Amino acid sequence: MKKIFSLLTVLLFALGFSQKLSNIQSGEELNYRIHYGILNAGTASLTALQTTYKGQPHFYVKGYGRSTGAVRAFFKVDDIYESFININTGLPSFYVRNVREGGYTQHLETVFNHNNQTLILTDKETNSIRNLNSVKGVQDMLSAFYYLRSLDSLDLKVGSVRKLNVWIDDEMFPFQLRVAGVENVKTKFGHINCLKIVPQVISGRVFKDKEGVTLWVTNDRNYVPVLVQAQLAVGSLKASIDSYKNVKYPLNFF
Q: Where does the signal sequence lie (predicted)?
């Protein structure tokens, strides 16, 4: 299970150019239940609050993932992700990844300078600081998720592909999302019409193939993820929506 739970958390949270965050409202909270095979493996949550960062309107977004039950007994996970996202551009200003996964820990902070396409990476465990080159429109793992949710419906037509550069840990990764179709998905609240999105991921070490992950988001202006399924090299993971509140537009379950 080492790092597998964290990978699904990344896919929930991440999953360009500037995009105003118009479909998110302050106080939104999304909670998910995570299963590894038949095991109840953990929970993940996302919250968004409007605030000010360096004099500019931002969303302070926090993602928290933890293992639960029998999984936590032999593999304790407590992952915290934080991001300050500029509301007018949809780009991250400050990003934190602070994770504990079994015996593995990492605490990184990143400051983004989008004007000159650089970033400052601080490793809080080693007290080291690096100044690195970036690229135009770079997203972090949380801001990428909210960027996707703020796109216009014309940008998420079936067959369309969105490409992003996402800052993960201490590296930049090209990321691609393909809208594969429209499906009705069963949830604990009933069925809901969804866009089926397939992220392109690195195959071999964890996932069975480069399109071994599928994400279903509501086919409305919210684009709330309701289900994620990942076929791993060993076993499978599933995350399903468990509760939500303060979503900007009504969710039409049937």
A: 1-22
